[in-house]
């Protein structure tokens, strides 16, 4: 098991033990990177959402999510502060309900990159066309687009990296 997998499992265990049992259905999702822990739980779809129009269902689910967000805000903040002290990562919260995912909080972390003129021109074109407000927004848009369109490939790449990490951990120690 990779170091990141072990850390994510520890976090999932801690949050599962710490969160009120009536908040979510099933197992929570915990995603860890260098700066942030995202905790996403599944809310039961409101019973009233069955047999109504798509627009009414979407509004019902949105209202249900917003009520959960407001009702749990203070407790989520307290739990996040505990986790931040214990694990050293900022905590973001989100839910899934009725097939929709909504993140309540997320970090926006600056990432240094060097781009040559052709890449900068792509970003500038997106800004000039009104697709993005800035080069930074344009780059984030590009990353989201690549992530969405290459999800299978990225999943395979992450699995390969986990295999390499396990092999390194099993090898001789310096």
Describe the protein.
This protein has 174 residues and is of the alpha+beta class. It folds into two domains: 106 residues, 2-Layer Sandwich (GMP Synthetase, Chain A, domain 3), CATH 3.30.300; 65 residues, no CATH class. The protein contains five helices and four strands. It has a four-stranded mixed sheet. Helix 3 crosses helix 4. The longest helix has 34 residues. The radius of gyration is 20 Å and the shape is globular. The model has no long low-confidence stretch (mean pLDDT 89).
β-strand percent reads 15-25%
Helix coverage percent = 55-70%
Assign an overall shape.
globular
Q: Tally of extended strands?
A: 4
- CATH architecture title of the largest domain: 2-Layer Sandwich
Radius of gyration: 20 Å
Question: What is the makeup of the main sheet?
Answer: 4 strands, mixed
What strand line-up does the widest sheet have?
Answer: 1-2-3-4
Describe the structure concisely for a colleague.
This protein is of the alpha+beta class and 174 residues long. The chain has helices at 3-18, 54-87, 117-128, 135-149, 151-170; strands spanning 25-32, 36-42, 90-97, 100-103.
Could you name the key traits of this structure?
single chain; 174 residues; alpha+beta; GMP Synthetase, Chain A, domain 3; 2 domains; 4-stranded mixed beta sheet; 4 strands
Please give the structural blueprint.
Layout: H1 3-18, E1 25-32, E2 36-42, H2 54-87, E3 90-97, E4 100-103, H3 117-128, H4 135-149, H5 151-170
Parallel strand pairs: 2-3
Antiparallel strand pairs: 1-2, 3-4
Helix pairs in contact: 3-4
């Amino acid at each position: 098991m990779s170091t990141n997998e072990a850390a994510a499992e520890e976090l999932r265990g801690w949050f599962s033990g710490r969160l009120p049992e009536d908040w979510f259905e099933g197992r929570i999702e915990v995603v860890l990177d260098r700066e942030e822990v995202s905790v996403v739980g599944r809310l039961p779809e409101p019973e009233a959402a069955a047999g109504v129009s798509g627009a009414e269902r979407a509004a019902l689910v949105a209202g249900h999510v917003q009520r959960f967000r407001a009702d749990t805000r203070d407790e989520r903040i307290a739990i996040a502060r505990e986790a931040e002290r214990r694990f050293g990562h900022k905590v973001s919260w989100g839910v899934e309900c009725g097939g929709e995912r909504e993140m309540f909080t997320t970090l926006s972390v600056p990432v240094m990159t060097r781009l040559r003129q052709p890449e900068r021109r792509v970003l500038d074109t997106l800004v000039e066309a009104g697709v993005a407000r800035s080069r930074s927004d344009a780059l984030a848009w590009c990353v989201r687009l690549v992530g969405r369109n290459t999800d299978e490939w990225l999943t395979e790449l992450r699995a390969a990296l986990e295999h390499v990490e396990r092999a390194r951990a099993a090898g001789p120690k310096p």
